[in-house]
Write a structure and sequence with these properties.
The complex is a heterodimer of chains A (168) and B (444). With 168 residues, chain A is an all-alpha fold. Chain A has helices at 5-22, 41-44, 92-104, 110-122, 129-158. Chain B folds into four domains: 3-77, Arc Repressor Mutant, subunit A, CATH 1.10.10; 88-165, Winged helix-like DNA-binding domain superfamily/Winged helix DNA-binding domain (Arc Repressor Mutant, subunit A, Orthogonal Bundle); 245-330, Winged helix-like DNA-binding domain superfamily/Winged helix DNA-binding domain (Arc Repressor Mutant, subunit A); 335-439, no CATH class. Chain B is globular and about 90 Å long. Classes of the chains: A mainly alpha (168), B mainly alpha (444). The interface between A and B is large, with 39 and 51 residues. Chain A: Residues 124-144, 151-168 have a biased composition (Acidic residues).
């Protein structure tokens, strides 16, 4: 049914060419690149530029997929930072800062801090991807802690009547 | 999605878009719809990588999103579109035969890039054409534009609808926008049907409405081969019954599968059953002129693999076996479905085997590529004949032989994939049009 051998060979060649070309396009996402401890000689001669060139048409995609634009400190890594609604990603220094501040101030001032940090974070430099992930989790944990701080307190007082369950 | 469909998608996504996209895509095939966070959690992938992967999937029309009524965005993947990757070379080739090199490059660019604006495509293709030949630049642009327009008119390419963005996530209704953004439509390739009249490509387009309108009255067994007929009383028109044509093709495909798998005598029995619809064991033996014992064996074998089926017709109310007719028959639709699944499995096996072969010989392949690169650079800088020969001899003769064998095997496996895809095309077309036909009576 296929017909002549010419067709078959040409289609075969096309197929193999497509497969090879795909790997060089920016749509090909490799496994997570491990942090470079030493700058490898080979990396200088590898073309990584084309991989980061693709910018999707954001009009056609949900906003949640859009990364936050980093300040151009590292031109190699693509700007891909998640943007959660309430909690913001913070760097390590800021986390420590935040902790210190929270220790000193009352819990009532916390919301002010958060809004200040929100504005601050929009201009912040970010570390590499791995650290961002770490920060995000840490930040979320922190915010979970903060968010449930009052909740736990409420439940604690409420369950005073029952006294059935063990309290923390 | 079936197990094999999922596997095929996983293989194809991995080969063309990398491990992360494959992981996210496969996960969504298995789970159906999911929001972003859930995908990241379930696949244990960092969320920014999931985002990238989703962007790639949506951009290439493998995935889409919608807003759940509770306000968050859900993503889903379209398996059939991913499996269509197997057919990309054929699309490019048919564009080439109809619209020349320009058409070929346009289709290739769009297939590789998912969606592009017309201006971007025309520019890129014109540049590529200009590189290969020393031609007048302005002429190439207009020629490319014209070819592009013709491709759109004949439905090789299709404009994407524009979505309006709302605050949280996606947009509502897609509407046609003046700015052209086009993508490759999932289309059928140059059909093997020679009976179909001109404009066949349009008829073979994805939407099932066209075949419906052209269908003639319900078929009788002796009208199986008639798929070109007169329309109505006007006398002048010729219609093509696509569904019947597809059924006929599917039948031929299944027959040849039976032949290859069970032998020519079983194929004879199979064709007999196709023609006579329902036959008893004894009748089969007589008509096919095959001894009883062998006939029984062949038929039970085909029965066990679901190529033929058995129907009981009781003569008495108590369904006693001695007073019941047992008729063998062929149900084309379920058989076609079963063979289609086998095709998917075959493709998975072919891909795995090819990748295995490549992996096993990776060291040798890399060595040969390095040597080629060295030779190319040496030739460019003008090296002596003897030096080139020395480099060539770095690959020993047995290694050369190994490379040749590897290349031969890989080519064979690749061609086989293409051929199986052809079978997939026929069977899928038949199954999908049959489904449409079955829906019509209920609507009446």
């Amino acid at each position: 049914m296929t017909g002549q051998g010419e067709d078959v060979n040409y289609i075969l060649a096309l197929k193999q060419e497509l497969r090879g070309a795909c790997k060089k396009l920016p749509y090909y996402i490799d496994h997570v690149v491990t942090k470079k401890d030493v700058e490898r000689y080979a990396n200088k001669y590898q073309e990584n530029d084309c991989k980061k060139d693709w910018i999707p048409d954001w009009r056609r995609l949900p906003r949640e997929l859009k990364p936050r634009i980093k300040r151009i400190k590292k031109t190699n890594t693509a700007p891909m930072v998640s943007q959660p609604k309430k909690p913001q990603t913070v760097t390590n220094e800021e986390v420590i800062q935040k902790l210190e501040v929270l220790e000193k101030k009352d819990s009532e001032h916390k919301s002010d801090e958060e809004t200040e940090e929100k504005e601050k974070n929009k201009d912040d430099e970010e570390d590499e991807v791995a650290e961002e992930e770490y920060d995000e989790e840490e930040c979320e944990e922190e915010n979970d802690y903060i968010a449930s701080y009052f909740d736990d307190g409420d439940n604690y007082e409420a369950s005073d009547d029952n006294m059935d369950e063990a309290t923390y | 999605m079936t197990h094999f469909e999922t596997q095929i998608c996983s293989c194809l996504l991995q080969a063309h878009y990398g491990e992360i996209v494959a992981k996210v895509g496969t996960h969504l095939i298995r789970t159906g719809c999911q929001p972003l966070r859930l995908i990241a959690n379930d696949t244990e992938t960092p969320i920014d990588q999931v985002k990238k992967a989703l962007c790639v999937l949506i951009h290439h029309n493998f995935a889409s999103y919608h807003v759940h009524k509770r306000g968050f965005v859900e993503y889903e993947v379209h398996c059939a579109h991913i499996i269509r990757i197997l057919r990309y070379p054929r699309y490019i080739y048919s564009a080439k035969t109809l619209y020349g090199d320009t058409g070929e490059l346009i289709v290739e660019e769009l297939l590789q890039n998912g969606k592009m604006t017309m201006s971007a495509v025309v520019k890129k293709v014109a540049d590529r054409l200009r590189e290969t030949m020393e031609d007048n630049k302005t002429r190439e642009h207009s020629e490319t534009s014209n070819t592009f327009v013709r491709l759109v008119q004949t439905h090789f390419l299709q404009k994407c609808g524009l979505v309006s963005e709302s605050v949280t996530a996606e947009g509502s209704q897609p509407s046609r926008a003046p700015t052209l953004i086009t993508d490759e439509k999932e289309m059928y390739t140059v059909p093997n049907l020679s009976v179909v009249a001109q404009g066949k490509r349009r008829r073979m387009s994805e939407d099932g409405t066209e075949p419906k309108s052209k269908r003639s009255k319900p078929e009788h067994s002796d009208q199986e081969m008639e798929f070109v007929g007169k329309s109505g009383d006007s006398g002048g028109g010729i219609i093509t019954d696509l569904h019947r044509a597809l059924a006929s093709l599917a039948r031929a495909t299944v027959e040849s599968v039976v032949q290859e798998r069970f032998g020519s005598r079983s194929a004879r029995i199979f064709r007999l059953l196709l023609r006579k619809r329902h036959l008893e064991q004894k009748q089969v033996e007589d008509f096919a002129m095959i001894p009883a014992k062998e006939a029984k064996e062949m038929m039970y074998r085909m029965l066990s693999e679901n190529y033929i089926s058995l129907q009981e017709i009781p003569k008495t109310p108590d369904h006693a076996p001695s007073r019941t007719f047992y008729l063998y028959t062929v149900n084309l639709l379920p058989t076609a479905r079963m063979i289609l699944q086998r095709c998917y499995k075959t493709v998975v096996n072919l891909i795995n085997r090819r990748e295995y072969e490549t992996r096993e010989n990776k060291r040798l392949l890399e060595k040969s590529q390095r040597i080629e690169a060295i030779m190319a650079s040496m030739q460019a800088t003008g090296a002596e004949e003897q030096q080139l020969q020395e480099i060539e001899e770095m690959i020993t003769a047995p290694e050369q032989q190994q490379l040749e064998t590897l290349k031969h095997n890989v080519n064979m496996l690749d061609s086989s994939e293409n051929q199986v895809d052809e079978t997939i095309f026929i069977l899928e077309s038949y199954i999908n049009t049959t489904r449409i036909e079955k829906e019509v009576p209920s609507k009446r």
